[in-house]
């Protein structure tokens, strides 16, 4: 506004908007907007169904790799006596590499599963030892695993671990690979337990192709006792993987189904192609095919279910 002041014109500054009352002046404070960190019920339910932990820790830096090497090497040093009872010296070196890769990709929980397979598998080979020695079905080399045996058990798991490390940015793919990792060991443990229990306690052993009775320990032979023991072993192992957060309940069930399919495929190969091509399809090669099939079937079902 313009008005006269002392014979001249002076421009009056526009009036300022009133300031809001200060809280320090004792003015009552209005209610603050509430900020809740709780997720909606639907999201909470979804989180409970997800496996705990990340699929992989991301690209490994020098520090993370150092931790992995330190943990794995410490376990091998402390457990050297137990490892020597089930592995040859060269086999221990190969198992160390397998453990390092799996620990790097699937963290401590996945590493525990590798150790659990070794413990349960070694104990299974000792069951009914006297009977198996008397019948000539006890494992060669006093049951100690050679490097070929290590990869006959861990090839598929190592492949899943390396792929998970390579594609650590793809969470969905890493979850699928983790399911394959669990299924591969569930398959091998199921096969080991079924074979060892069947050789020791199988009352009637039949060839899977002809269903005719054959001696215990025959390639491609199955028994009722061994089959149920193998199913139980894969179920317990998959349940352990679920409790460790490596798979969800659906994934655990998928691993059991995949193990059953793959172990029967191994029996079928043992009764057919392995007999004609024994030099190429030895037990270790057939085992690699079996565990790879178990991992592939599990990952295929997981993708088909979209879970």
Overall description:
By secondary structure, this protein is mostly helical. 65% of the residues lie in helices and 5% in strands. The chain contains eleven helices and four strands. A two-stranded antiparallel ribbon has the order 1-2. It has a two-stranded antiparallel sheet with strand order 3-4. β1 and β2 form a beta hairpin. The chain is globular, with a radius of gyration of 31 Å.
Number of strands: 4
The largest β sheet comes out as: 2 strands, antiparallel
The whole-number mean of residue pLDDT values reads 83
> Which structural class fits the helix and strand makeup?
mainly alpha
Beta content: under 5%
Report the end-to-end length measured between terminal Cα atoms: 72 Å
The number of helices is 11
Could you give a short description of this structure?
The chain is mainly alpha-helical and 307 residues long.
Keywords:
single chain, 307 residues, two-stranded antiparallel sheet, 11 helices, 4 strands, 5% strand, disordered N terminus
Give the helix/strand layout.
Blueprint: E1 2-5, E2 8-11, H1 41-49, H2 62-78, H3 80-86, H4 89-126, H5 129-135, H6 147-166, H7 171-201, E3 205-207, E4 221-223, H8 224-243, H9 249-271, H10 273-276, H11 283-305
Antiparallel strand pairs: 1-2, 3-4
Helix pairs in contact: 2-4, 3-4, 4-6, 4-7, 6-7, 6-11, 7-8, 7-9, 7-11, 8-9, 9-11
């Amino acid at each position: 506004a313009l008005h006269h002041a002392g014979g001249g014109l002076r421009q009056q500054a526009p009036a300022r908007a009133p300031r809001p009352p200060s809280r320090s002046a004792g003015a009552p404070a209005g209610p603050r907007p509430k900020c809740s960190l709780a997720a909606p019920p639907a999201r909470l339910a979804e989180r409970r169904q997800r496996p705990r932990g990340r699929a992989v820790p991301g690209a490994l830096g020098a520090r993370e790799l150092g931790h992995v090497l330190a943990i794995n090497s410490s376990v091998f040093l402390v457990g050297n006596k137990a490892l020597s009872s089930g592995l040859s010296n060269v086999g221990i070196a190969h198992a160390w590499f397998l453990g390092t890769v799996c620990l790097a990709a699937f963290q401590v929980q996945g590493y525990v599963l590798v150790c659990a397979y070794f413990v349960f598998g070694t104990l299974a080979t000792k069951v009914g030892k006297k009977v198996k020695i008397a019948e000539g079905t006890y494992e060669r080399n006093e049951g100690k695993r050679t490097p070929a045996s290590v990869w006959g058990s861990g090839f598929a798991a190592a492949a899943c671990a390396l792929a998970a490390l390579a594609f650590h940015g793809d969470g969905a793919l890493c979850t699928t690979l983790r399911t394959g990792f669990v299924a591969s060991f569930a398959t091998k443990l199921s096969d080991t337990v079924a074979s060892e229990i069947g050789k020791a306690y199988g009352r009637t052993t039949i060839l899977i192709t002809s269903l005719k009775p054959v001696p215990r320990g025959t390639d491609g032979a199955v028994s009722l006792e061994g089959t149920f023991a193998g199913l139980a072993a894969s179920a317990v192992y998959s349940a352990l993987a679920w409790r460790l957060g490596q798979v969800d309940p659906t994934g655990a069930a998928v691993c059991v189904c995949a193990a059953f399919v793959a172990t029967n495929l191994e029996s079928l190969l043992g009764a057919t192609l392995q007999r004609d091509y024994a030099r190429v399809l030895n037990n270790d090669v057939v085992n690699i095919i079996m565990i790879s099939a178990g991992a592939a079937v599990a990952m295929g079902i997981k993708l088909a279910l979209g879970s």
